[in-house]
Amino acid sequence: MTAHPLRARREVLFALGFALVLGGLYSCYGALNHGPADWIPRTPLDEHIPFVPAFAIPYLSAFLLAVLTAVVFAVKSADLALSTLLAGIILLLIAYTCYLTVQTYVERPVEIGEGFLPDLVRFVYGNDEPYNAFPSLHTGFSTVFAIHWLRYGGKAGVLCTAWCALIVLSTLFMHQHYLADLASGIAAGTIASLISWRARGLWAPKAPAE
Question: Is residue 41 domain-resident?
Fold first, then answer.
């Protein structure tokens, strides 16, 4: 069924607006990614999580998943696309509030090893300071994607949700985050997704009566 012209125009305008705001907010990440840290949310359980360089692959694949999600939702469902964008904005606002008020620090392994996979870990570490960890944005965005892929449904929805779960786990086994960072990331991503989905009326006005 063809979307009503009024709704189609609103969807395009909201998509452009949300994308600009999301991009602008994301560009501020580096400016916040520094100390001093107020606390290190490490727990005894974190001490038993092994360092596995192979998890750098699913960790980096988060960016590929973001592109795939944007393309599929833009083509298949404006509601999902716009809700995902708005959820990303809300997630960043929640996360940045935490980074500004209660900055954290993650202790990374000293011995990483040699080879392709350890080099990928070095690439990640070299491009991301060990701050801005609570909540984990990799986890938060993966949660947003997972919730919206579940709404999308089908095999693609299940597979992409499983992919999201693997990305979340990768943040632990790469020693990029602690368990508390994951818990807060899941909570922030869930809250952001619930708010954005309920806000669909912003871009989906009722069609005028014939």
Answer: no
pTM above 0.90, yes or no: yes
Length of the chain counted residue by residue: 210
Residue 131 lies in a domain: yes
Residuewise pLDDT in 10s, the chain (210 residues): 345 666 788 899 999 999 999 999 999 999 999 999 999 999 999 999 999 999 999 999 999 999 999 999 999 999 999 999 999 999 999 999 999 999 999 999 989 999 999 999 999 999 999 999 999 999 999 999 999 999 999 999 999 999 999 999 999 999 999 999 999 999 999 999 999 999 988 887 665 544
- CA 8, 26, 14 angle in degrees (round to 5)? 10
In the numeric block, the tokens 């990483």 are attached to 112
Would 133 be classed as within a structural domain?
yes
